[in-house]
Design brief:
alpha/beta; Rossmann fold; 3 domains; 5-stranded parallel beta sheet
Length: 389
């Protein structure tokens, strides 16, 4: 495939513009993608290099006054390019942006904490990160219930689908099955590491399973508590008493101040891409090892999908899928599927890890396999599947 992903940066609001560009290309590196597959466009090189058929995202920085690049903006809107308007104050959005952007939801960027969020949205717009944003809060109720609720509300506002046991489980759910199902489908875990965290059987199991599945964990460590050897693979964030309201963390209902919450949000956004990339790489490595053992050739493409040549010389595409494949997962990869089909490959599969997925979703996936052209395959069944190709 000869196309390039296009990041387009326009507008007159320079604050944090370079930070967005730097963050975007740093995240590309974290995802293991080939930097040569991306091009940065602006008002200087747009006319010469823009390709309407290539996957594109645009950030338009706007701070009122004269609005530059309007002709380019109209062209991108006509081409249905994913576009994020960035302003310093959403309360004055319409006066700060050209009329062409009034129907698009804008983003306020008044400090550096929003850079990671915008970066991830750009990657989602290019289908390089899944659009569902899932987060799991692991905590011990008797020590950190109030902070857990604070984080639930914070991440819900930031567009995450947050799992918190007291808020996310419905009456009649099988607690353990649903908990593991949501954990396997999360992008990142925020672990509230209080002094008695491991005294609970469930929190100990959550840590073990998340680590075993390669999910990145942000370990928020309470004042006076140290990171233990069991959590060496976690990313630590140490709290001080000054991070808490009233400078105390010793009460069950103790809460964090706004600065501490913003720091947790920023670190979580940064970890999310790394977590998804690592889990996708694990699927790729497990598949390629199995295929190689059966003398089957596989080729990893820049977009992180695999091409496998079967014994009859036919090419088959496999898209490694993190978490639980559902009906929207199939639609999320629609653009990638279109490109694969344009290359005349007759068969396309989603490759996923079924472990800890509840039975009702396995049944749902079987139904989807009967009705959709893209099929889902369990990684644990790949060996027998390859043998029968």
């Amino acid at each position: 495939m000869t196309y390039k992903y296009q990041l387009i940066v326009l507008g007159n609001y320079a604050l944090y513009k370079q930070d967005i560009v730097d963050s975007f290309f740093a995240r590309i590196t974290e995802l293991g993608l080939d930097a040569d597959a991306f091009v940065l466009l602006n008002e200087v090189n747009f006319d010469q290099q823009y390709q309407a058929r290539n996957p594109s995202v645009c950030v338009y920085f706007s701070n009122g006054g004269l609005f530059p690049d309007i002709d380019i903006l109209k062209l991108l809107i006509n081409d249905a390019v994913f576009l994020i308007p960035v302003v310093p104050d959403l309360n004055h959005y319409k006066s700060l942006t050209p009329q062409e952007l009034h129907f698009i939801n804008g983003t306020e960027l008044g400090d550096s904490f929003g850079v990671n969020t915008i970066t991830n949205k750009l990657l989602e717009g290019l289908s390089l990160l899944r659009q569902s944003r899932r987060l799991f809060i692991s905590y011990r109720r008797v020590e950190s219930r109030a902070v857990a609720i604070q984080l639930y509300e914070l991440f819900d506002q930031k567009g995450f689908d947050v799992f918190l046991d007291t808020h996310s489980l419905q009456a009649g759910d099988y607690f353990q099955d649903e908990l593991w199902h949501r954990l396997v489908d999360t992008d990142v875990v925020v672990l509230l590491d209080t002094p008695g965290f491991l005294e609970s059987y469930w929190t100990e199991q959550e840590l073990a399973k998340a680590s075993g599945m390669g999910i990145c964990i942000l370990q928020v460590i309470w004042p006076g508590h140290q990171q233990a050897p069991y959590s060496a693979l976690c990313t630590p964030l140490y709290l001080s008493q000054a991070d808490f309201e009233n400078d105390t963390s010793k009460q069950e209902l103790a809460t964090l101040n706004l600065k501490a919450l913003a720091g947790i949000a920023s670190d979580t956004e940064s970890l999310r891409a790394r977590s998804l990339a690592g889990r996708q790489d694990n699927l790729i490595q497990e598949f390629t090892s199995t295929a190689s053992a059966h003398n089957i050739s596989t080729y990893l493409q820049p977009e992180k999908f695999l091409i496998m040549t079967n014994k009859d010389g036919q090419d088959i595409a496999l898209i490694p899928t993190v978490g639980v494949p559902q009906s929207f997962t199939f639609s999320e990869v629609e653009e990638l599927v279109k490109r694969i089909r344009d290359s005349k490959m007759p068969s396309i599969y989603l490759l996923y890890d079924h472990r800890n997925i509840v039975k009702k979703w396995e049944t749902h996936l079987s139904w989807l396999n009967k009705h959709l052209p893209v099929k889902a395959r369990r990684i644990v069944e790949i060996e027998s599947w390859i043998e029968n190709l």
